[in-house]
Design brief:
Helices cover 38% and strands 17% of the residues. By secondary structure, the protein is α/β, with parallel strands linked by helices. It has one domain: TIM Barrel. The strands form 3 sheets. The protein has an 8-stranded parallel β-barrel, surrounded by 4 helices. Strands 5-6-11 form a 3-stranded antiparallel sheet, with no helix packed on it. Strand 7 (135-140), helix 5 and strand 8 (168-172) form a beta-alpha-beta unit. The longest helix is centred in the middle third of the chain and has 22 residues, at 187-208. It is globular, with a radius of gyration of 18 Å. The model has no long low-confidence stretch (mean pLDDT 97).
Length: 336
């Protein structure tokens, strides 16, 4: 009952400031190893995937905690795994403010944050201080001022930096908020990047003796031919999973809203259907050869089931937390 009151106050305030303050409050009020007082009980419902054991199939999507400053706080909500980032090799401020907008009438969010983060070293420092012992994925991207033709170098730097510390690594090439980033999903740029990532992992495995799984996060704004190409490239490069999907540039679901034309990616309920369609398309093409993590518009157990029935093995939430509150994870896991 506390969250509706909190939400009514928070939605009158600047979204980015509320986000920052909420993470700080959540971290301060977390009790190590115990559920948060605003979250319900979460049973163990383990899932084996990528050679890892996830406590339950509901994870935190990247973007909520880019710098890993609230790991224990978020873990106390009952997530089966956390994905931190997107993190870049060097610190960067992101795009100019304002850059985060709520669309309450549609239960949507538009953001053009632009990978604002303190850099990979800051994230790793925060991770080393966390008490959480569960699965942590680290989502890596390129710095905004790295030319797209040199993007591979940033991803290799990121992968090398986090390789031994992450339980899995996500390669983010699908954010719409870094100039030309989505071009990396196409043609030679995609296959060359995946080859470079695969070669780097092979070298790191020899150096460390550790096999760290790698997932690739894709956009929802893809046609059938693009999906065909992406699946072939993912399988050919030996990646371990695909995450579907990132935010969308399509505004059809929120047409007419005063904020509809804000630049950036749209998430939340408006992207739910398209995300599920992409998962279905991936599942049909992959035919069990690679697992899928489903994300996009998950606000209930039924929404999570929709993604799982479409072919996902795990799901992630972000915008649902904003609109439904910290009890959402318990609701979903208990409802599955």
């Amino acid at each position: 009952m506390l969250y509706p009151l909190f939400k009514s106050i928070a939605f009158r305030m600047d979204p980015e400031k509320v986000h920052e303050r909420t993470l700080k409050l959540l971290q301060k009020t977390a009790r190590p190893g115990k559920p948060h007082f605003m979250a319900g009980p979460v049973p163990d419902k383990p899932v084996e995937m990528m050679g890892l054991r996830f406590a339950n199939p509901v994870g935190l999507a990247a973007g909520m905690d880019k710098d890993g400053t609230c790991i224990d706080g978020l873990a106390s909500l009952g997530f089966g795994f956390l994905e931190l980032g997107t993190v870049t090799p060097l610190p960067q401020p992101g795009n100019p403010k304002p850059r985060l907008f709520r669309l309450p009438e549609h239960e949507g969010v538009i953001n053009r944050m632009g990978f604002n983060n303190g850099g990979v070293n800051a994230l790793l420092d925060h991770l080393s201080q966390a008490r959480y012992q569960g699965i942590v994925g680290i989502n890596i991207g390129k710095n905004f001022n790295t030319p797209i033709e040199r993007a591979e170098a940033d991803y290799v730097l990121g992968l090398r930096a986090v390789y031994k510390r992450a339980d899995y690594v996500t390669v983010n090439i699908s954010s719409p908020n870094t100039s030309n980033l989505r071009e990396l999903q196409k043609g030679d740029a995609f296959t060359d990047l995946l080859r470079s990532i695969a070669d780097t992992r092979k070298a790191l495995m020899k150096e460390t003796g550790v096999h760290t799984p790698i997932a690739v996060k894709i956009a929802p704004d893809l046609d059938e031919a693009q999906l065909d190409f992406i699946v072939e490239a993912l399988l050919g490069s030996g990646m371990d999973a695909v995450i579907a999907t990132n935010t969308t540039l399509d505004r059809t679901a929120v047409a007419g809203h005063p904020r509809a034309e804000e630049a950036g990616g749209l998430s939340g309920a408006p992207v739910r259907q398209r995300s599920t369609e992409i998962i279905k398309g991936l599942s049909k093409r992959l035919d069990g050869k690679m697992p899928i993590i489903g994300v996009g518009g998950i606000f209930s157990a039924d929404d999570a089931k929709e993604k799982l029935d479409a072919g996902a093995k795990l799901v992630q939430v972000y915008s649902g937390l904003i609109y439904r509150g910290p009890g959402l994870i318990s609701e979903i896991v208990n409802g599955l």
